[in-house]
């Protein structure tokens, strides 16, 4: 006899529209050749694999607002359709689309606006390349474009610093225009981060991390393997610089670089690891593929354990807002999700 069974858990509990979801269950027994489904907020998911204990499904991509949805299994159809219990799932809401984002978004500490880019292909000149998403939801174009903006960081002076990978420069970006070059000669400048003492670090994806003190070219701080895309960088609460260098492997690493510029492997086993952020407890969050599943991966402070925190495709970066929201950027869309996590800004 057909049985919709019981849902024990859904993993992860946070997803983007179109993200993959694992449904753990017991006694899910559709009739041979009979109808069965998994539904999120009443909408049917595409099922990629199923058994009596586990289903893997794709959440419909038609959601645009944040929603706490119910996940249910069903067997049969029409008047004979039977449903399982319901388990809650949070789906992220869309903030902006039609972007071209290649790294983490950033939060302006002065007013909590979210900064994102329309980066373009290398050397492509666009009329507008940097945008502010105001807390009201309004999308504001900054008037003075930067060629191929990549990494964004706010300095201790409150100013916005942006890497321009085409020319190996760091720009100081003013929301009213009149941007200025802060440093140059930095190779294919991608990753950017400030340490707790206000020193700027820039990652040249060809294999070099620079420290930049004052308006100068920068000195070599560390060397890493080159990346096919970009370096993504963030300082951890322990004072080390954490760097991802996405390659073509399914077992790429996150590196931790100490104050002497010596790198060690913090965690290995990720596919295409990209943007990095930390919470106040020292957990690291990274956009990556882990054990065949795409999304945001949470890694413990000691680097010994990891799990998928949020499911989603084509994610390139993330950051945390002051109100506890996680801001997630895919290559063309920015999402928000109230996860109640306090992030760090170092």
Fourth-tier CATH superfamily name of the largest domain: YVTN repeat-like/Quinoprotein amine dehydrogenase
CATH fold naming of the largest domain: Methylamine Dehydrogenase, Chain H
Helix content estimate: under 10%
What's the main sheet like? 14 strands, mixed
Strand content: over 45%
- Taking all Cα atoms into account, the compactness measure Rg is 22 Å
- Number of H/I helices: 0
The CATH architecture of the largest domain can be named as: 7 Propeller
End-to-end distance: 58 Å
Note the overall shape. elongated
CATH class annotation of the largest domain:
Mainly Beta
Domain module count: 2
Question: What is the residue-mean pLDDT, rounded to a whole number?
Answer: 95
Uncertain stretches of 5 or more adjacent residues: none
Structural class: mainly beta
What is the count of β-strands? 34
Keywords, separated by commas or semicolons:
single chain; 346 residues; mainly beta; Immunoglobulin-like; Methylamine Dehydrogenase, Chain H; 14-stranded mixed β-sheet; four-stranded antiparallel β-sheet; 34 strands; 0% helix; 49% strand; elongated
A few lines on this structure:
With 346 residues, the chain is mostly beta strands. It is 0% helix and 49% strand. It contains no helices and 34 strands.
Describe this structure in words.
By secondary structure, the protein is mainly beta. It folds into two domains: 6-91, Immunoglobulin-like, CATH 2.60.40; 96-338, Methylamine Dehydrogenase, Chain H, CATH 2.130.10.10. It contains no helices and 34 strands. The chain has strands at residues 6-11, 14-15, 20-26, 36-40, 43-44, 46-50, 54-58, 67-75, 82-83, 87-91, 93-96, 106-107, 114-117, 130-133, 139-141, 149-154, 160-164, 169-173, 180-183, 189-194, 200-204, 208-212, 219-223, 232-235, 241-244, 252-257, 263-271, 276-278, 284-290, 293-299, 306-311, 315-320, 325-330, 334-338.
């Amino acid at each position: 006899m057909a049985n919709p069974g019981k849902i024990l858990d859904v993993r992860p509990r946070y997803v983007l529209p179109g993200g993959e979801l694992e449904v753990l269950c017991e006694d899910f027994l559709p009739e041979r050749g009979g109808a069965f489904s998994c539904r999120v907020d009443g909408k049917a998911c595409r099922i990629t694999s199923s058994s009596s204990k586990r289903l893997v499904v794709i959440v419909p991509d038609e959601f645009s607002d944040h929603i706490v949805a119910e996940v249910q299994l069903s067997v049969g159809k029409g008047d004979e359709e039977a449903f399982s219990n319901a388990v809650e799932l949070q789906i992220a809401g869309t903030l902006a689309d039609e972007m071209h984002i290649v790294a983490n978004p950033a939060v302006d500490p002065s007013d909590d606006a979210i900064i994102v880019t329309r980066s373009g292909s290398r050397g492509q000149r666009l009329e507008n390349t940097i945008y502010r998403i105001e807390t009201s939801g309004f999308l504001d174009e900054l008037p003075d474009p930067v060629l191929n903006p990549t990494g964004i960081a706010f300095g201790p002076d409150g100013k916005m610093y942006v890497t321009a990978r085409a020319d190996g420069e760091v720009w100081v970006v003013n929301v009213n225009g009149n941007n200025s070059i802060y440093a140059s000669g930095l190779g294919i400048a991608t990753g950017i981060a400030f340490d707790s003492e206000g020193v700027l670090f820039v990652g040249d994806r060809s294999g070099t991390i620079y420290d930049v003190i004052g308006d100068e070219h920068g000195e070599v701080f560390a060397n890493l393997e080159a990346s096919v895309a970009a370096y993504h960088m963030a300082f951890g609460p322990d004072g080390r610089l954490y760097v991802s260098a996405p390659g073509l492997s399914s077992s790429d690493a996150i590196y931790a670089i100490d104050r002497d510029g010596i790198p060690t492997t913090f965690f290995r086993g990720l596919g295409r690891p990209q943007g990095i952020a930390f919470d106040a407890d020292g957990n690291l969050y990274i956009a990556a593929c882990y054990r065949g599943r795409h999304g945001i991966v949470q890694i413990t402070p000691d680097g010994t354990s990891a799990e998928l925190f949020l499911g989603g495709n084509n994610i390139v970066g993330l950051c945390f807002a002051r109100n506890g929201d996680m801001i997630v950027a895919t290559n063309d869309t920015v999402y928000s999700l109230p996860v109640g996590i306090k992030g760090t800004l170092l």
